[in-house]
Design brief:
Helix content is about 45%, strand content about 10%. The chain is mainly alpha-helical. A hairpin with a 7-residue loop joins strand 2 and strand 3.
């Protein structure tokens, strides 16, 4: 490219995109006109070829903490359990070093996850951390609050080994209820019976009100899935709940009783996997339901599972589950045992 004086003014001589591109050679009265023509011609070429530099946005250097706060204000605060999720998200971001969102890579998160795993953090917790952060970036990208793509979409979740769900035998149920009757809390036994009769979570039973016990049914609201569900109960349990409701003031039938339940459980001979205290009542209902010939789809509705995969954890307990293995194995086909 060159601009130089000539006999009748100034000459500009340039190619719009370097070697191999079109060459322009013009003469203008002034040097300034040469410069303006050169800039205009190159800009016009870039526009025609698809380049639109005026539309390019500056790099987004907002850190993950800023983006998570933006997400919470615009999206997250409307979700169930929003405060708890937001606090876990902030803790994850802090451990990551709070980088700029646009500079976070899949490799960064995988290295972070590897370190956490070596510290003994469970795969389920690590999957939750990935899910929370990825959901934030996807939500912001969807509403065009960020222009860079979510780098975590390429990170696979860790596979979780399926653990056996513990449930109580008939004798253990009797032992547990015997201990709860000795508790200083008047609610713990009946809450336990509601959980064993309906498969509800402890908090769902504990939160029952008089209005939610109607016509031999209990109605659970504010559930984990966000859906209300009604579960039939026996006449005797229904009457017991109505009579018990007179013990508390207001609409609530029960008051907080989980600590009393745990103390009662600790007094029994029952040994459970870590983290399965009151939840064993829900597992016990589901397990006995299937052992006694219940339908898996009915169980899904009773438990309130939004995904049948959760309910299928109990499918192996059905009386006829894989019974064909007895009839069709190679030894069963022989006339006599070797």
């Amino acid at each position: 490219m060159a601009i130089k004086p000539v006999k009748n003014g100034w000459q500009v001589d340039f190619k719009v995109a370097g070697r191999g591109s079109r060459r322009y050679k013009r003469v203008f009265p002034t040097k300034g006109e040469c410069e303006r023509f050169q800039r205009y011609t190159i800009a016009q070429y870039e526009t025609d070829s698809g380049a639109k530099p005026w539309l390019e946005k500056p790099q987004d250097n907002r850190r993950l903490s800023e983006l998570s706060e933006l997400w919470y204000q615009n999206h997250g605060q409307y979700l169930r359990d929003s405060k708890r999720t937001y606090n876990k998200l902030k803790a994850t971001i802090e451990r990551l070093g709070n980088p700029a969102g646009s500079k976070l890579t899949a490799a960064d998160f995988i290295r972070y996850r590897s370190t956490r795993s070596q510290e003994g953090i469970t795969p389920k917790t690590l999957n939750n951390e990935l899910g929370y952060l990825s959901a934030v970036l996807s939500a912001l990208a969807k509403t065009e609050e960020i222009t860079f793509p979510n780098p975590l979409t390429s990170v696979d979740r860790l596979k979780i080994v399926e653990h056996e769900l513990a449930f109580l035998t008939d004798d253990q149920i009797t032992e547990l209820l015997t201990e709860t009757r000795k508790a200083d809390n008047p609610h713990v036994t009946l809450i336990s019976k509601v959980c064993l009769s309906t498969g509800c979570r402890w908090g769902e039973a504990e939160g029952l009100t008089v209005q939610r016990v109607r016509h031999n049914r209990v109605i659970f609201t504010d559930t984990k899935s966000g859906r209300n569900r009604a579960v039939p109960i026996s006449e005797s349990l229904y009457r017991e709940l109505l009579d018990h409701s007179t013990l508390t003031a207001g609409n609530r039938i029960f008051s907080g009783s989980i600590s009393s339940f745990r103390r009662s459980l600790n007094r029994t001979t029952i040994e459970l996997p870590k983290g399965q205290a009151s939840h064993v009542l829900r597992h016990t209902f589901a397990s006995h339901f299937m052992i006694n010939g219940g339908n898996i789809l009915t169980l899904q509705k009773v438990l309130g599972h939004s995904d049948i995969k959760m309910t299928m954890r109990y499918a192996h307990l059905t009386p006829d589950h894989l019974q064909e293995a007895v009839r069709l194995n190679p030894l069963a086909q022989k006339k006599g045992e070797p």
